[in-house]
Amino acid sequence: MFIWVFHRVTGLLLIVFLGLKFLTSFFLMTKDQKPDWALALHTSPVIDVVLIIAVVFHALYGLRTVIMDMGCKREKLLFWLFTGLGTGLTVALLVVYFTRNY
Q: pTM (2 decimals)?
């Protein structure tokens, strides 16, 4: 049940945050004065970290759901496998994000 709720919540977070990022990027493409709130949204590491976590776990738990729909009955093993894989992948991506030089 936890994964079902988490998968739905991360899906909603992705829709909201990516929608906001896409829509506010149009404000940043103008030659005129750029709004401070749009700059704050695009330079905020908190939103980027939430997006990284949401994308990784949403994708992996979606794969887990597909595998279970195909007939695999080892639900606990898949949960721990994809949770461990998601944690490792998230940590690796966050290290890359925070150590980039551009």
A: 0.84
